[in-house]
């Protein structure tokens, strides 16, 4: 284990989060804090600047009303201002754009680039957490990379293959050592179930490849299996003119990309 990510909810609001981050750094772990960057205290700014710490955040649109509609409050101005502040302080930062419109994602990317953000990923809205709809969680909606060199530990100690698959409990670190859980049959079975469900979904969807968001990678945009992506498609930067959009694990599964 070489790295750890603190994610929520909002990790900076947890009363023990600062102590946990310092403990991770003392263990020599690369530490990423996934924050909405709405309210950042002086103590957190100090931690963000520690060696070995990086920050990640979600960005939904360059337009305040669209971003705030996703977060449920007027958060766009604060998040954007704190992205700019973090970069000014030399803090390592990446942003994940989440949305189902190629035009909105492209505009958000340009806005982030204008601020100086260089590490930018994109993913469509997955039906988990804030994006959840009524009904049972479906394994096929995961990215397919859950449990591959990673696992998620919830606030109660329960372990699952990733942050989006919290209902797949494979053990609890308060009862069993983490290394035993990571090598357990329960995790292997959960991972196999995810691979099977995602693989079946891809077989039904020819456009479910590495280009994201997936609905912008339909044949009409010249970005689908066995066809090269042209520079004028909405699949940038997942597919460049010299790459092909072949079916495979979705690489933009936020917050991991």
TrEMBL record:
UniProt keyword list: Iron, Iron-sulfur, Metal-binding, S-adenosyl-L-methionine
Ranges of residues in domain Radical SAM core: 4-103
A Gene Ontology molecular function term of the record: iron-sulfur cluster binding
Superkingdom as given in the UniProt entry: Bacteria
Domain spans labelled 4Fe4S-binding SPASM: 143-201
Pfam families recorded: Radical_SAM, SPASM
Entry-linked CDD domains: Radical_SAM
InterPro entries found in the cross-reference section: 4Fe4S-binding_SPASM_dom (IPR023885), Aldolase_TIM (IPR013785), Radical_SAM_PqqE_MftC-like (IPR050377), rSAM (IPR007197), rSAM_sf (IPR058240)
Transmembrane segments: none
Name of this protein: Radical SAM
Lineage, opening ranks: Bacteria, Bacillati, Actinomycetota, Actinomycetes, Kitasatosporales
């Amino acid at each position: 284990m070489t790295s750890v990510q603190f994610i929520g909810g909002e990790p900076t609001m947890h009363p023990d989060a600062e102590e946990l981050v310092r403990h991770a750094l003392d263990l020599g772990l690369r530490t990423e804090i996934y924050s909405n960057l709405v309210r950042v205290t002086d103590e957190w700014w100090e931690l963000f600047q520690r060696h070995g710490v990086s920050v990640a955040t979600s960005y939904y649109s360059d337009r305040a009303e669209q971003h705030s509609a996703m977060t449920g409050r007027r958060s766009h101005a604060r998040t954007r201002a704190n992205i700019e502040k973090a970069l000014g302080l030399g803090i390592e930062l990446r942003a994940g754009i989440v949305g189902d419109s190629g035009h909105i994602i492209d505009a958000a990317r340009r806005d982030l680039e204008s601020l100086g953000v260089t590490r930018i990923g994109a993913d469509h809205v997955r039906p988990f957490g804030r994006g959840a709809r009524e009904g049972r969680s479906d394994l096929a909606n995961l990215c397919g990379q859950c449990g591959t060199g990673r696992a998620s530990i919830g606030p109660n100690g329960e372990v699952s293959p990733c942050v989006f698959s919290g209902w797949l409990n494979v053990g609890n670190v308060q009862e069993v050592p983490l290394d035993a859980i990571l090598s357990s049959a329960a995790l292997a079975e959960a991972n196999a179930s995810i691979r099977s469900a995602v693989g079946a979904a891809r077989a039904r969807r020819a456009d479910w490849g590495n280009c994201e968001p997936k609905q912008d990678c339909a044949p009409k945009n010249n970005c689908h299996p066995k066809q090269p992506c042209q520079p004028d498609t909405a699949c940038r930067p997942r597919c460049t003119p010299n790459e092909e959009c072949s079916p495979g694990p979705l690489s933009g599964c936020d917050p991991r990309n």
